[in-house]
Structures
1.
Amino acid sequence: MTVTFEGYERRIEKINACLAENGIASLEEAEQICLDKGVNAREIVHDTQSIAFQNAEWAYTLGCALALKRGVKTASEAASVIGEGIQAFTVPGSVAEDRKVGLGHGNLGAMLLSDDTECFAFLAGHESFAAAEGAIKLA
């Protein structure tokens, strides 16, 4: 299988660096790590947000593979690590990269899943919730 998605050329160098830092050879291997544990991250993302771009499906696949490979034990930890995968997909030099949007979405999901969070309300930022929703569902 050849992996392609929107903005591939602008994103792949950073994605490959994340893969290498975590001992994963490719996005295909990341997907296989997930599938071997019975998790089809791309399908989960698509089912959660049917209009999600393909790069989002692969970003969450990478994040999920990172969480599985690290053996995280809680949903909150998983969401946080999934954010690392999302961050790897931000376009170099973009506002999303500069503001660490991927990490923020993962951390938002982690906060929502934390045993310490008794009440959480969104007053605005529906896009952030939609992104965190993917991390929550996968976690």
2.
Amino acid sequence: MDQEVEEIARVLLHKTGDSSEFIQKAADRSLGIMVGSVTPTRAMAALMASGVNHRNPPVRKCAAEHLLTVMEQIGAEKLLSGTRDNTELLVQTLLKLAQDCNQDARFYGRKMLNVLMPHPKFDGYLKQSLPSHDLKRPESVFVIVILKTLLPKGDFEFFCPNTRSRSDTLAPAQPVVRRSSLRSVEAMEQLKELNKLLMAKDFQTRMEGVTLLVEHCRNNPQLVSANIIQIFDAFALRLQDSNKKVNQHALESAASIIPILKDGLHPVVVSMVTVVTDNLNSKNSGIYTAAVRVIMNVSLSLSDNALLLQAFASRVHFISGRAMQDITEHLSALVSSVYSRKPQAVERHTLPVLWYFLNNMIGNGVLPGRSGNVRTVVCKLVKSLYKEMGRSLEDHASSQPQHVIKSLRDLLDMELQ
């Protein structure tokens, strides 16, 4: 299996995120057997390549769990004795996992760091992966505080560059941690209850979880905003629930809470757009209408639409049909509001979408595949871009293939008539 481990690990990890619990468990069990049988370094490389950066939280959790097994098998001495680039990549990956939005992935990430901590070289690699200016970020300090709790007192000392005391690095965070712990017991219980309902097997209980989330947003929006990544980890699954009633209820609820949370949604905007846009191809009119409302509300509620522009642009390449056309229209509408403030963002994210369409359209605007005729939405996109960029739009097209340049000129000539 050594020669096949990377590809099979990729497929099995993908299946651990399947909606079927039976398939999840079977894939996880198969992956565990394979990882325990092949060369450990090959297994580690495959898990890092295909799992720890996966956008699906359950997949990241599964990859982290098996990666921990492999790392314990290899040992800290060998793990930290490889090439400098590989070792730095490993430590950076584990630090990222230790801050993951998924609770289980965070747990395994911190356990893996715990495996490396006794090695004398670890402090050096940790300092390189968390430069002094990053240590000022709350999430980085939080990880270090949590790491210390995993070990007996004195086992983990982190020396921050340009400071004389090893404990000084953590000193500013201590009062914050104490105050937070005193106030957060009730909040943590509420979040625990919410997560339990949202992840329930019974669809009616999941419906109750969605309703409870709406109540929390109305009664205590600060609680939701402060824990939005953790909450969305479970709520995102309901936005694509296999039960149509739950799916529609979650989308309608999302539309209602967006104007309440507004910029508090910023950390999960890209994930939300990714999940919601898949519903734009639903044949269920209620689900489609609710998904459209979510997209409209998020467009109206954010103070800075540049991130939303990036999210829409990235989705065009991964969706088809009505969803592609709807998102392209929203993208056209965003161009005018973003370009005046951040022209480079429009050029970086929206122009590649236009080149994609012009490079692949055939006939009178048909995009091969399941997307049908996209000429109307592409014309709108060209019109929006030309209105803001003028003739410089053609200058940006100069590096594109000749048929793309010609298609753009034809559309511009039609718009300018």
